[in-house]
Amino acid sequence: MIALVQRVSQARVEVGGAVAGAIDAGLLVLVCAEPQDSDALADKLVAKLLKLRIFSDAAGKMNRSVQDVQGGLLIVSQFTLAADVSGGNRPSFTAAAPAELGRRLYERVLATARASHPDVAGGEFGADMQVHLVNDGPVTLPITLRD
Fold first, then answer.
1. Does residue 79 have an active-site annotation?
2. Which secondary-structure segment (H or E) carries 106?
3. Whether 6 is catalytic
4. At what angle do helices 39-51 and 99-116 cross, to 10 degrees?
5. Which residues contact 104 (CB under 8 A, 6 or more apart)?
6. How many domains does the chain have?
7. Cis ω on the peptide bond leading into residue 138 (within 30° of 0)?
8. Which of 6, 10, 55, 79 is labelled catalytic?
9. Measured distance CA(98)–CA(118) in Å, rounded
10. Taking the CB of residue 100, how many other CB atoms lie within 10 A of it?
11. pLDDT single digits (tens) 29-60
């Protein structure tokens, strides 16, 4: 699985002009499933997100997790994270999971996060979405997990 994690002071995702999900301070997570990914890997991603220490402690060091700061998680599917641009100027997305698997794993990430954390919002798989965010720091981290 591929994820792009951004520490935000606020974020929201809109579908068709309506807000599908929104958070105040926390993490905006763009998620892409790959063909070899599994439920176990989706669960591992959620565990990593919840424990990732990228919020400042009293000394200003990145030492606190989204759980520690009681922040939100906004999880949005984004298959374009699997883009391959090595062959030219038009990206290839063949490294992304097929839609059925991508949807199932995205929904697994959302369900696992909701079962483990009180403030979780999401986008809509496969929809044309507009993501609005205020990146705090800025802090942006790419995460790639493999089985």
1. yes
2. helix 99-116
3. no
4. 40
5. none
6. 1
7. yes
8. 79
9. 30
10. 8
11. 999 999 999 999 999 999 999 999 999 999 99
